[in-house]
Amino acid sequence: MGTLINVRYCIGESMSDFFRNLIKEIKDENTTMAGDGDGSAEFGGFIDTGSYALNAVLSGSIYGGVPDNKVTAFAGESATGKTFFVLGVVRSFLKQNPTGGVVYYDTEAAVTKAMMEERGIDT
How far is CA 47 from the centre of its chain? Predict the structure, then answer.
């Protein structure tokens, strides 16, 4: 289950102010803005992609993966396996962080609720 956050973007408000307000509402000591000089760029760890080869390409180690404290985008041609790997990363992240949440932005409309449930992802 997620938490509803009530933050509105006001006309004339800068995006920086919007994100600062969002961060205040989240109330998470690890959520910061790099532009404020806080330690948001500190290494946290990895999320396993489910593929030793992809882990090695992304992190330099077959036991690595995608950074666990960064926004990650998978981009490429259609039908190249992006959805397959991303759903594996989502499942790994949620398994490691049972109270966590994922924002999944799909530009190809490739993911269905059934696909997520088949991969063990609670929708």
Answer: 10
